[in-house]
Each structure stands twice: as structure tokens, then as C-alpha cells.
Amino acid sequence: MSLKPLVIDGLVAKVPIIQGGMGIGVSLANLAGAVSREGGIGILSTAQIGYQEESFEKSPLRANMIAIQKQFEKAKEIACGGLIGFNIMAATFHYDRYVKRCVEVGADVIISGAGLPINLPELVEGSQTKIAPIVSSNKGARVLLSTWKKRYNKTADFVVIEGPKAGGHLGFKAEVIEQSIEQMDEEIIKIVETVNSFGADFNKKIPVIFAGGVFDREDIDHYLSLGCSGVQMATRFVVTEECDAPESFKEAYIKAEKEDITIIKSPVGMPGRAIKNRFSERIKHEQIPIEKCRNCLSYKHCDRETIPYCITETLLNAVTKEPEDALVFAGSNAYRIKEKTTVKTIFKELTTA
Prior knowledge:
Elements: E1 6-8, E2 11-13, E3 17-19, H1 29-37, E4 41-45, H2 60-79, E5 83-89, H3 95-105, E6 109-113, H4 120-123, E7 130-135, H5 138-152, E8 159-162, E9 168-169, H6 177-201, E10 208-211, H7 217-225, E11 230-233, H8 247-255, E12 261-265, E13 271-275, H9 278-282, H10 311-320, H11 343-351
Parallel strand pairs: 3-11, 4-5, 5-6, 6-7, 7-8, 8-10, 10-11
Antiparallel strand pairs: 1-2, 9-13, 12-13
Keywords: Flavoprotein, FMN, Oxidoreductase
InterPro entries: Aldolase_TIM, NMO
GO molecular function, one term: nitronate monooxygenase activity
């Protein structure tokens, strides 16, 4: 059976696959554009998106604002008219400026998580940009959509559920991750019901997208059978020719075995899934001094005096230095990737019935 297009309030992706945002420097224009060209939705991560700009070390915010436009325009050119959006962490310092900048350059969609994006509707007011919160529970979905309804008389254009098998920061407490994996299907069904009820209130269809551990066509069919309209995949696209990450980063994925996929404690207060290496072992027993603060997170998400390490510093090191001595985020299935491929090849595999 062929996959149905993903329709988001008038926007149409021929293939119901969204490429997940991966920062720093993993999902930029080349990857996002390639995914969009194949019929999916390509996503740029705004997390220090301007790290390659000359002005970055002196003025990270300014560099990021410049890069948002550069990366978007380049991705759009590669996409040949396809859909391109941004992933913006709600915990980002100057979150409002990032959202407004993405709207200004013409983002088709904005996906926002790492905290509840409470004021997202007002930041995109009057634009054509479609918005989606990332939620991990039915309770979170209900609270956020209720708040948007009450405060703005608005609702989501689509909703992304991020499950406990995802890479990077997770919306689950470390001690319940395994239990949450077992119960996720049941939670998805509840979230879909909740989202549908809000859709009925606003007389619109709100697609639900599942993310976290989606690897092959069998996974896609499974989540569609639970009521989802599409999936979001990130890890699967890392070891492709088009991915913006350096070869050393991709090699870390290829070399990883199942036992190398581990849960780490992030300084932002969430558990995270990454590939075990010298860095992940080091942070178990050592606090790593901050070399330079680049004001990546809002103050309530980062206590510079007590954090075990700087999240920006180590993610930058993963794509600019030696990944073995840096944080390499990855989903639970990263170990299944054993060779480099192309975005086109992956899409062919996933869309072949």
C-alpha cells in the first residue's frame, strides 16, 4: 500500500515523512533540502545554526539570525519547491526572536519542543507559517492545546509526538524511559483522540506525527495504524551523503553497537540519548568547566554555576572537533546503521510497498 500525502492546513507533502531537526550543525540546508526534494518536509535546526558564520564567536545571536535566512534559502533551492521548516527549542534564549526570524524568511512550518511553546501562536500571528508543538504525553498535549485555545483562540496546525526512543533530549524522566517505551502505543492513541477533539473545536484536521525510533516501513505502517498521519525521522538520515554533519560524526554512528546507545544527563535538566564515548564516560564523574558562554538557553534552563558541562560547547565540538570527546546525540536505532547511503535511497525504501 502506498503512503498517503501529508496535508497540513493546505500545505501538502507528497510523502508523510518529516525529517527531524538535529542541532548543532547536523540538519542544515543540504539535508533538509534533499528530504524536501524527495517529497518529505525538511527541517533546519536553529540551535547555533550560525556556527559557521565569521561573526559567530563575537555575536552568536547575530550570526544565527543571518544563518537562518542563508540556510533556508539554500534549502529551498535544493528542495525545488518543496516544504522547508525549522525546529526551535522553547528553552532557547531569545526564543521569540528566533521564531519571528523564521517567520520573516518564509518558513513553511515551525516545530517547537524542549519545553512547552506557550506563546508560539502569537509569535506567528498574521503569517502563513504552520506550527506544531512537540509533546510526549496526553497530559502535555491537553495542557498546551487548552492553553492555546483559552489564551489565543488558536490551535496547532499539526502535533508531533516524541516518544522515548528518540535521540537527543527526551521528555521523560530517566527512571521511566523503559516503562514509557512499553506504554507508548497506548499513549499515542490517547493523544490522537485529544488532538482530534481540539480539531473538532476549530473545524479543522490536525495531523499527528510520531517521532522517536522510527526506522523502516514497518515502523511507519505501525504508527499510521494507531491514527497518526505521518512520522518524523532524524537518526535514519544522519549517515547520508547529504547530511551536513562531518564524516567523523557519521562514522561514530556506523561504529556504534547496540550497547553503545546510552542515556546521559543533560545540563538542561533532561535525560538525553547519545552514543557512548570518552565524553559520555567523563561526565559521569567530572564537571567540565565552561570555556565560553554563548547564551544558548534561557536562564531558567541553565545555571552556569552548577551545570556539569556546557551543552552548546560539547555539541559544537561534535561537529567541529573529535566526536569521541563530545556529545553525539542519536536515536535508539542508530546502531542499525552500518553504511552510508543517500536520502533518495532511503525514501525509495520507505515508500516501496
